[in-house]
Specification:
This protein is of the alpha/beta class. It has one domain: Rossmann fold (3-Layer(aba) Sandwich). 43% of the residues lie in helices and 23% in strands. The chain contains eleven helices and seven strands. It has a seven-stranded mixed sheet with strand order 3-2-1-4-5-7-6, with helices on both faces. The chain starts with a helix and ends with a strand.
Length: 265
């Protein structure tokens, strides 16, 4: 556990920059996930690793009693400000997805949109999602895949700044094999759908400008490299963007595959 705690401290790179700007691209997957878990007005819902609150806010607009939790205090402040601006009664709290501060079976629906997958202790994170979900409820997840854009982008990041050896890849959550290992023995994996999130920018340079100033993991890489290696990293990142560009014109539209997962408890 001491090793996992050290990893969590390193993961505070998510607090760098402005992840809410990156999160604009993830609103639609959260909306789709809300539909996939069949939300109803009055449902008590928890959005785990909520970031700037996208899925929790989406649930609140559907008249659910929504709560969002994240271990980055700055993101919780941003999410709370968004809820206040819209007049939505969402509760946001600072907390760890491996130690959710809620009693067993507290929620009808439990969601995590590209969130719990980054927990160092994957088994613990999965068990916490199960624990706080009521019997008869549903757990919904959106998880990046190994062969999609973010699989390649995170692999590129790892080439320049190696992750701790004890850390399993978050992209394993985007495989049915790992999902069955984490959930399959005790819970029903009722639906696994392959989807794609689209990141739309003016061009590659625009994407790189935004992500080098707002996205903590990319900012962390550049902070640790000298000028030569930084330029090399950015060239490789530019090439990756080009490979996954599906715009068909001079703009950038990155297609990033993920698994939409619904688990019945």
């Amino acid at each position: 556990m001491a090793g996992f705690d050290a990893i969590k401290q390193q993961q505070q790179v998510w607090a760098a920059g402005d992840f809410a700007v990156i999160g604009w691209n993830l609103v639609y997957p959260g909306e789709l996930l809300c539909e996939a878990v069949e939300l109803r007005g009055g449902h008590e819902l928890l959005d785990v690793a909520t970031g700037a609150g996208n899925a929790a806010l989406s649930a609140a607009r559907r008249n659910c009693d929504a709560t969002g939790i994240d271990y980055v205090p700055g993101l919780i402040e941003r999410a709370s400000a968004r809820a206040a601006a819209e007049g939505l009664p969402v509760r946001f709290e600072v907390g760890d997805c491996e130690q959710l501060p809620f009693a067993d079976e507290s929620f009808d629906r439990v969601l995590s949109v590209f969130g719990s997958i980054f927990a160092p202790d994957q088994e613990k994170a999965a068990q916490e999602l199960i624990r706080v979900c009521r019997s008869g409820g549903k757990i919904g997840m959106a998880n990046w895949t190994l062969d999609g854009f973010w699989g390649h982008a995170f692999a590129l990041i790892a080439r320049y700044v190696a992750p701790p050896e004890s850390l399993r890849s978050p992209l394993e959550w985007g495989t049915e094999t790992r999902l069955k290992a984490l959930f399959g023995e005790t819970k029903s994996l009722t639906k696994i759908s392959k989807r794609s999130a689209l990141f739309r920018y003016r061009d590659n340079a625009h994407w790189i400008d935004v992500f080098t100033t707002c996205f903590g993991p990319v900012m962390n890489v550049l902070a640790k490299l000298d000028e030569k290696r930084s330029k090399e990293f950015l060239r490789n990142l530019d090439d990756t963007l080009t490979r996954f560009n599906v715009s068909g014109d001079g703009t950038l539209m990155v297609s990033a595959d993920y698994l939409e997962v619904v688990i019945d408890k």
